[in-house]
Structure formats: C-alpha cells, structure tokens
C-alpha cells in the first residue's frame, strides 16, 4: 500500500512557485499579492487563514488579511472586496468560509472578480472548468489531481467514484476526473447502496464530511483512495472520512489525514495566485 503523502508533492510545487514568484518580481518589480477576507473569528477559519498567509510568504507571495468583526454587514464587506477588485497591486482575493449568518453564499459567490478569484468559486470560473477552458482551478479537487499525478495513479479509462457533491469539492472533483478520461460515479446522501458503487471503483474520492464513514467494506481491492474529510475529535486528533488503518489493508494507495489533501489545497491556492498575477500582467502559463 502506498501512502499518498502530500509532502514530496508540495515540496516540488513550492520550488516551482518560488522560482515563478522571483521571476515575476524581477520582471514587474513587485511581488504577487494575495488578500484574504476573514469575517468573524471562527477558530478553524483563523487557523486556515494564518496557514494560507504563511504559505504565501514562504514562496515569495505577499499577503494581507482583512479581518472584519462578526457584526460587519454584507454591504461593508462587499465594498471592501470591491476595493480589492479594483486595486492593481492585488492579484488574488479569497473570502474565508464558512460565512457568518446574514451572508448569502449565493450572493457572495459573485463578489470577487473572476480574474482574482483564487478559490475558483465564481460562477464564471466554474463555467470555464465545466467547459474544460484554461483558468483558475478549485483548490481542493485540483490538489487531489496533483497528488494522483505525482504518484502516477492512472485515470484514463478507469472507474472513479466520488462521495459528495458540494460545489467546492464533490462536483468539481467529478468534473476533473471526467476531464482526465475516467468514468465517474458521483454519490451523495440520497444514493442507495453506497457500498455497492464505491466497491467497484478503482479510484475513490471521499468528500462526505462524515468521520469514519468509509471502512474496508467500501473498497475495491487495490483501489486508490483519497480522503478529503477533515474532523477534529474530542481529544484533539485530526481524522478523515476514511478509517485509515482498516482501509490501508485493502487499498493500493491511500491519503493520510492529516498530511494528504489538506496541504495540497494550500499549494493550489498559491499556484492560482501566481497564475492570476501572471495572467493579469499578460503572461499566461496555463
Ligand atoms: N482537505 C481540505 O483541504 C478540505 C477542503 C474542503 C473540505 N474539506 C473537508 O471535506 C469534507 C467535505 O467537505 P464539503 O465542503 O464538500 O462538505 P459538504 O458541503 O457538507 O458536502 C458533503 C457532501 O457529502 C454528501 N454526503 C454526506 N453524507 C453522506 C453519506 N452518508 N453518504 C453519501 N454522501 C454523503 C452530501 O450529500 P448531499 O448533497 O445529498 O447532502 C454532500 O454532497 C469535510 O470534512 C470538509 O471539512 C477538506
């Protein structure tokens, strides 16, 4: 069983990003810049925001965090995002989720201009992905694709299954696997006989957000299994949607949690920021 650890992949991506960020700096005499908008002080969001900022700095991308109090109105935040959209020194913008009560996800999706939309949530960005056009990539599913590529997990002509159909993980994940010529089964909470489908899959991506949902009875012998889930147990341990020790006995490859999909997500966010910066300046590398 191969453990699909993010470490060697993120190291490789990091070196490449450092090189590109330096090249950008020399050419345009400024660094690419990422703005993170954080509303309220949800502890997990505060940690994620900090990690994104540290990741940016580590590859030579500048960053700033705009921290709004939980009491900020949607109009206040939207105006600030609009200023960032218009600021020529800002290349990438992301609004940290979850949004506090009073903010409508359906409206916020449109706030960040598509060219700076490094989370790839804007409907226009999603449309490009569906059409297979070049552009910014949704961070978590693109991170999964990078991981599979690095470990040479073939996708073309193989049967893949995705558990989950959220807009940020499940749906774009299925779309990317399809574009890589896998045959894709997409499951969700209303799917009957989940096991009968997942146990056929040569590649299984689990993004249900349900701790320990998937044990070895869901797995085809030798399958590559990707665990997107992240949960903190009452004793402070980080676990996924997959029972690692049990599934490891049957799978051919499996991501650890932590140390699997999570770090990949940040790597793609930084890749998107550089892409957005280069693209805005007229350079295009993707
Ligand atoms: N590693 C990372 O960087 C990263 C990034 C994002 C998310 N995550 C984690 O990934 C997990 C999923 O995130 P998300 O945002 O996609 O969650 P989400 O919006 O809650 O979506 C979960 C999806 O799973 C489906 N589902 C739930 N229970 C199921 C079950 N018992 N059987 C089959 N399908 C089931 C749901 O179906 P319905 O549509 O029918 O409700 C839904 O489509 C969470 O643990 C989250 O923390 C990790």
Write up what this structure looks like.
The chain has 286 residues and is α/β, with parallel strands linked by helices. The protein has helices at residues 7-28, 43-59, 74-86, 105-108, 123-131, 139-150, 170-179, 194-198, 244-247, 261-280, and strands spanning 2-3, 33-39, 62-68, 92-95, 159-163, 183-187, 203-206, 224-227, 231-232, 238-239, 253-254. The strands form 3 sheets. It has a 6-stranded parallel sheet. Helix 7 (170-179) links the parallel strand 5 and strand 6. Bound molecules: NADP nicotinamide-adenine-dinucleotide phosphate.
Q: How many DSSP E strands?
A: 11
Beta-strand residue fraction: 15-25%
Specify the oligomeric state: single chain
| Overall shape | globular
Radius of gyration: 19 Å
Give the strand order of the largest sheet, numbering strands 1, 2, ... along the chain.
1-11-8-7-5-6
N-to-C span: 33 Å
Could you list the spans in which at least 5 consecutive residues all have pLDDT below 50?
Answer: none
Mean pLDDT across the residues is: 97
């Amino acid at each position: 069983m191969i453990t699909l650890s993010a470490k060697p992949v993120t190291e490789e991506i990091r070196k490449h990003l450092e090189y590109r960020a330096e090249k950008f700096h020399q050419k345009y005499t400024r660094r690419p810049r990422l703005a993170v908008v954080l509303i309220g002080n949800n502890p997990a969001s505060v940690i994620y925001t900090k990690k994104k900022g540290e990741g940016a700095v580590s590859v030579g991308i500048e960053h700033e965090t705009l921290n709004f109090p939980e009491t900020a109105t949607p109009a206040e935040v939207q105006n600030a995002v609009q200023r960032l959209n218009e600021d020529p020194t800002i290349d990438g913008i992301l609004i940290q989720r979850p949004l506090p009560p009073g903010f409508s996800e359906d409206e916020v999706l449109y706030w960040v201009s598509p060219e700076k939309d490094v989370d790839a949530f804007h409907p226009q960005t999603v449309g490009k992905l569906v059409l297979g056009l070049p552009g910014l990539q949704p961070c978590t599913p693109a991170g999964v694709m990078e991981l599979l590529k690095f470990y040479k997990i073939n996708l073309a002509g193989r049967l893949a299954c995705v558990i989950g159909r959220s807009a940020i993980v499940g749906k774009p994940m299925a779309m990317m696997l399809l574009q890589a010529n896998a045959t894709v089964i997409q499951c969700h909470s209303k799917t009957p006989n989940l096991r009968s489908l997942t146990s056929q899959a040569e590649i299984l991506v689990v993004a249900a957000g349900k701790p320990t949902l998937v044990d070895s009875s869901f797995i085809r012998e030798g399958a590559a299994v990707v665990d997107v889930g992240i949960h903190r147990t009452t004793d402070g341990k980080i676990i996924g949607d997959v029972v690692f020790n049990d599934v490891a006995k049957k799978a051919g490859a499996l991501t650890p949690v932590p140390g699997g999909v999570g770090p990949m997500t940040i790597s793609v966010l930084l890749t998107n920021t550089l892409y957005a910066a280069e693209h805005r300046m007229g350079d295009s590398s993707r």
